[in-house]
Specification:
This protein is an all-alpha fold. The chain has 13 helices and two strands; from the N terminus they run αααααααααβααβαα. The structure holds heme C (HEC) (2 copies). The site of one heme C has 25 residues, from helix 12.
Length: 313
């Protein structure tokens, strides 16, 4: 056993990232470029909504941060959703989709907004019907799928596009891969603090989150203190399992693009990253963090933002 371990040390030199609880983001291999491109178009196609007024991109703006800049997204007929819209970037590395993880896969997720009466208010029959009247589109589908325009093929295309939405090459990932100069001293210190305070126990892995569930309010009653009535959406994973112990359990969000967000938490109760960091320290770790440490953690979180052709920076 020990010999094998020593041997592997010689064969694979230990890099910085091998010792860290956060890993660099990597592109999903083997995606068909044609499918990604057609999926991209469908993601931006308002015909997926009942009255052609809303596309996926309406609430998941790829240029800014893959979500929107509102506390609650506005869907069809100006209706508002129950939570803030999360980013669609890097979701391929989440264990499940939605704040409560009610969809296991990206494929499962797509039907949600299409049918949701406050998002797109449509259904697959209607969408397939509308898209089938577009002869150019029909041809493009037929080049990729023998059965042409179907709900399953639309889902496959959008999910394939979403798998291409990975924000690569952030300065933090460059540092992980050995470039010492990619981070400033403050940023490195911010990362050390992120680990030392214990943020890392929930926000970790490639996505700096997205790989486990945790209570909102592990060390304090966030919902009692918030001063707003508790809504169904605040119950989190309980809405999926019906188990009392799952009340207020949420998928830990990825912090990869947190620095680009306007609002924070599922209920958008906070509108600055510094306040979100302080709230997390209080409610998740039972600690107070001084201003200088908050600022360094914030600087570290800014280094997690990578690049993608759709994201303008
Ligand atoms: C009206 C606004 C709106 C529209 C339109 C919309 N979404 Fe969303 N999206 C949201 C909100 C709000 C959530 C969070 C809902 C929840 O978790 O309960 C969400 C969640 C998601 C998630 C889960 C991300 C995560 O980390 O959990 C994905 C993926 C997603 N949407 C993709 C899409 C796709 C694909 C479309 C188009 C077919 C779409 N959305 C249309 C508002 C919208
Ligand atoms: C016990 C697990 C846990 C710990 C520890 C933890 N978090 Fe969180 N974090 C969560 C959960 C769960 C949410 C989502 C809560 C919600 O939306 O209601 C979250 C949300 C966030 C958000 C908002 C993200 C978004 O998309 O809205 C930020 C920023 C954040 N955490 C940073 C931190 C920092 C910084 C620390 C350390 C001081 C930390 N977290 C410690 C579980 C944790």
């Amino acid at each position: 056993m020990r010999l094998l371990f020593l041997l592997s040390l010689f064969t694979f030199p230990v890099s910085v990232s091998a010792q860290e609880p956060i890993m660099p983001l990597t592109a999903v291999p083997g995606l068909s470029a044609e499918k990604v491109e057609l999926g991209r178009q469908l993601f931006k196609d308002k015909r997926l909504s009942r009255d052609n007024s809303v596309s996926c991109e309406t609430c998941h703006d790829l240029k800014t941060n893959g979500s929107d800049s509102l506390p609650r997204s506005v869907g069809i007929d100006d209706k508002r959703g129950a939570t803030r819209s999360p980013t669609v970037y890097n979701t391929t590395y989440n264990i499940a989709q939605f704040w409560d993880g009610r969809s296991r896969t990206l494929e499962n997720q797509v039907s949600g907004p299409v049918h949701d009466p406050v998002e797109m208010g449509s259904h697959w029959g209607q969408v397939v019907n509308k898209l089938s009247q577009d002869k150019t589109l029909q041809k493009r589908f037929e080049n990729l799928y023998p059965d042409g325009i179907t709900a399953a093929n639309i889902v496959d295309l959008i999910a394939t596009f979403e798998r291409s939405l990975v924000t690569l090459n952030s300065s933090f990932d460059q540092w992980l891969q050995g470039d010492e100069s990619a981070l400033t001293e403050d940023e490195k210190e911010g990362y050390s603090l992120f680990k030392a305070y214990g943020c890392i126990s929930c926000h970790q892995g490639k996505n700096v989150g997205g790989n486990m569930y945790a209570y909102m309010g592990t060390m304090g009653d966030y919902f009692a203190d918030r001063g707003q009535p508790v809504t169904k959406a605040d119950f989190g994973r309980y809405n999926v399992t019906g188990n009392e112990v799952d009340k207020h359990l949420f998928k830990v969000p990825s912090l990869r693009l947190a620095a680009l967000q306007k609002y924070f938490f599922h209920d958008a109760s906070v509108s600055s990253l510094e306040d979100a960091i302080q709230m997390m320290a209080h409610y998740q770790l039972g600690r107070q963090i001084n201003r200088s440490d908050v600022s360094k953690i914030s600087k570290f979180l800014h280094t997690l933002v990578g690049q993608h052709p759709e994201l303008s920076q």
